[in-house]
Design goal:
Blueprint: E1 3-4, H1 5-12, E2 15-17, E3 24-25, E4 28-29, E5 40-42, H2 55-60, E6 65-69, E7 79-82, H3 85-99, E8 104-109, H4 114-125, E9 131-133, H5 143-149, E10 157-161, H6 169-176, E11 181-184, H7 198-210, E12 217-221, H8 227-233, E13 239-243, E14 247-252, E15 255-260, E16 263-267, H9 272-287, H10 292-299, E17 310-314, E18 317-321, H11 328-340, E19 347-351, H12 361-375, E20 380-383, H13 388-394, E21 400-403, H14 407-414, E22 420-425, H15 433-442
Parallel strand pairs: 4-5, 5-6, 6-7, 8-10, 8-11, 9-10, 11-12, 12-13, 18-22, 19-20, 19-22, 20-21
Antiparallel strand pairs: 1-3, 2-7, 14-15, 15-16, 17-18
């Protein structure tokens, strides 16, 4: 991205403050700690901080200017004054996409699997094309425009996550970047604080497919709940492609062998839901012209996204770190994966809270405990967090189950174990990966 401050101000609907208008902007940042010379800093207000407070630091470190609300301008800091920095970023991203970028937009939505599918598809498309993607899980009001503004004008595709948690958020994201290809992972129980039912979640997410144009591509998980919501949203003359979990030949801690469209693939990844995400990525890459033999070769070199069924061997334990996030669907997927893995030792589950599930949270946690007890009757269950005891309540039939006030108590318990596989999972806010880091320190 390259704009003068005058051009950027006009596109964002802002006003120059202590700027000539001729300064050159060559990127954007939302973090004053990692700002690069020539970038424009957006002073965005978060839950725990106000970015405008770091505008001076950003400029001192080399930022061309800061983008801040007009009523919060800071004396002596060259700035573009706007109504609201997040909305201004969205306007600039839309203008950049429409006027400078040639890239086609691949949009991914769903309650689970968005980030994994995005990362896998990015890897496979990069075999043949120049591709940018949403970084980490920056998939909402800030992350999507931020990704667009940092994309290269040489890119052929942008792979973007369309993550929402409230009504009408999808409308806003689509207004910035309407998709050319829309991919659905799976709909389920997530973000139920503001979207009260799975039906409401499906209605909001299906808007991504409604935004498709003639000859665009819709890619649907055949086995998702409420598939009909999405099918009904797709306009006529859009190409519809379905996918599902491929045939799993073998799964172990070394990886998975599976068959898709008569081709056998071998990958270090594990988990039926991960392999389903990989199937979607393979199908889209093939559809967009990537050679199947090259895809097969790349699949053999794939590694999991951080904290998404990430396998580590720590002393007497094999640790499967799935601690990036959690909701009932992804919890069940982890349990299913544990059941599928060929392993003779103990399967120990360390589970923390699933957040943002609204007033039915205790029920959802109890259901997961019950699901674990039915699927893996000899599992060991250790829990922590506000709803940890609800897991225990649901897992009555398990012989070994225990609640702990903190992760240090869990570590003490693990010190007495002979070994096994540890399955670690909770919502992002629980930061349960800290347990794994502390376990590393003890080895």
């Amino acid at each position: 991205m390259k704009y003068t401050t005058k051009e950027a101000a006009r596109l964002m609907g802002g006003k120059l403050y202590r700027l000539s208008g001729d300064e050159i902007i060559e990127g954007v940042s939302i973090d004053s700690r990692t700002i690069k010379k020539g970038e424009m800093f957006f002073g965005i207000k978060g839950e725990r901080f106000d970015g405008t407070q770091f505008a001076h630091d950003a400029v001192r470190k080399g930022a061309v200017c800061a983008v801040v609300p007009e009523f919060k301008r800071t004396e002596n800091v060259p700035s573009i004054l706007v109504d609201e920095p997040v909305m201004a970023m969205g306007r600039l991203a839309r203008a950049y996409l429409n006027s400078r970028l040639k890239a086609k937009i691949i949009g991914i939505t769903g309650s689970v699997g968005k980030t994994t599918t995005k990362d896998l598809l990015h890897r496979l498309l990069s075999i043949k094309y120049s591709v940018s993607k949403t970084q980490k899980s920056q998939n909402g009001f800030i992350g999507l425009p931020f990704t667009i503004l940092n994309a290269s004008e040489k890119d052929d595709y942008l792979v973007l996550e369309y993550g929402i948690s409230r009504p009408y958020e999808m409308d806003y994201l689509i207004s910035i970047a309407p998709p050319d290809v829309a991919i659905l992972t799976k709909v389920g129980k997530s973000h139920l604080e503001f979207l009260n039912t799975e039906e409401e979640v499906a209605i909001e997410k299906s808007k991504l497919f409604k935004a498709l144009k003639m000859f665009d591509i819709a890619v649907l998980n055949k086995n998702t709940p409420m598939l009909d919501f999405f099918e009904a949203a797709i306009p006529k003359m859009v190409r519809v492609i379905y996918y599902e979990t491929p045939e799993i030949i073998e799964m172990s801690v070394q990886g998975t062998v599976f068959k898709l469209d008569e081709v056998t693939y071998n990958t270090p990844l594990i988990g039926k839901h991960i392999i389903t995400n990989l199937a979607a990525a393979i199908i889209v890459a093939k559809t967009l012209g990537v050679d199947v033999d090259e895809i097969k070769e790349e699949v053999e070199k794939l590694t999991p996204s951080p904290m998404r069924l990430e396998i580590t061997h720590l002393g007497k334990f094999t640790v499967i770190n799935d601690a990036y996030n959690a909701n009932p669907e992804s919890m069940k997927a982890l349990i299913d994966t544990a059941g599928d893995i060929n392993f003779n030792g103990k399967k120990i589950f360390i589970l923390g809270d699933m957040l943002e599930l609204g007033p039915r949270s205790p029920i959802f946690h109890e259901e997961i405990g019950n699901y674990l007890a039915r699927k893996i009757p000899d599992a060991v269950l250790y829990t922590t967090g506000r709803f940890g005891k609800e897991y225990i309540k649901g897992a009555r039939s398990l012989k070994v189950k225990e609640y702990f006030d903190n992760i240090d108590e869990i570590l003490e318990k693990l010190s007495g174990e002979d070994g096994g596989i540890l399955f670690v999972k909770a919502s992002r806010g629980m930061q349960l990966e800290r347990l794994i880091e502390k376990l590393k320190e003890r080895i």
